[in-house]
């Protein structure tokens, strides 16, 4: 899990800004093996105007729906997620999940479910800075889905979308210094470790922890 990651949500069906000639008009679909050529607006407009679906074989990153509430609640109540991601409430309730689904929290963040073979296995999100050149990725993964490479694939898929489709110039990823698993995910995708952010994040118990900053630039992405 990555610091700064949030429990997932969605802001509802958004109006179409632009689309290709896919039968599912109104949905921006990016396939790793069959990329579509799109004339894309600025990154913020893309996040605001499209329903998102990113695919890599059996792994799909898609918008959340109200049917996903039980999976969100179960996943975010894992004690390890509470340990690594203090910004996620703990205990995590159905009301917390519904706030995300209704767009009341982090309305400007792209929030996607990680779905593998039809089952939700985690969540991943990205914010874009006000000048539309830098994104920040965060995520969480359900306990029974860890250690299988799913998170690495999801981060790679979203990072590729950020750099190649949204044409961002940098993607950030921040982890706890002791979260070796998340640091390995970052390195496998191609993120470069830049340094330690001292006294960066306050935890609910009052601790103020350092964070490790990783960055990904165009050309860094590893397959």
Task: Tell me what you see in this structure.
The chain has 223 residues and is an alpha+beta fold. Helix content is 25%, strand content 30%. A hairpin with a 2-residue loop joins strand 4 (110-116) and strand 5 (119-128). The chain has a domain at 27-169: Gcn5-related N-acetyltransferase (GNAT) (Aminopeptidase, 3-Layer(aba) Sandwich), CATH 3.40.630. It has helices at 43-49, 69-76, 79-84, 94-101, 150-165, 180-189; strands spanning 27-31, 51-56, 59-63, 110-116, 119-128, 134-141, 170-175, 192-202, 208-216.
User: Count of DSSP helices?
Assistant: 6
Strand content: 25-35%
Which strands sit side by side, in order, in the main sheet? 1-2-3-4-5-6-7-9-8
- SS-based structural class? alpha+beta
Helical amount: 10-25%
Return Rg in Å.
16 Å
Mean pLDDT: 81
Number of strands: 9
**Element pattern in H and E:** EHEEHHHEEEHEHEE
Please give a quick description of this structure.
This protein has a domain at 27-169: 3-Layer(aba) Sandwich (Aminopeptidase). It is built from 6 helices and 9 strands.
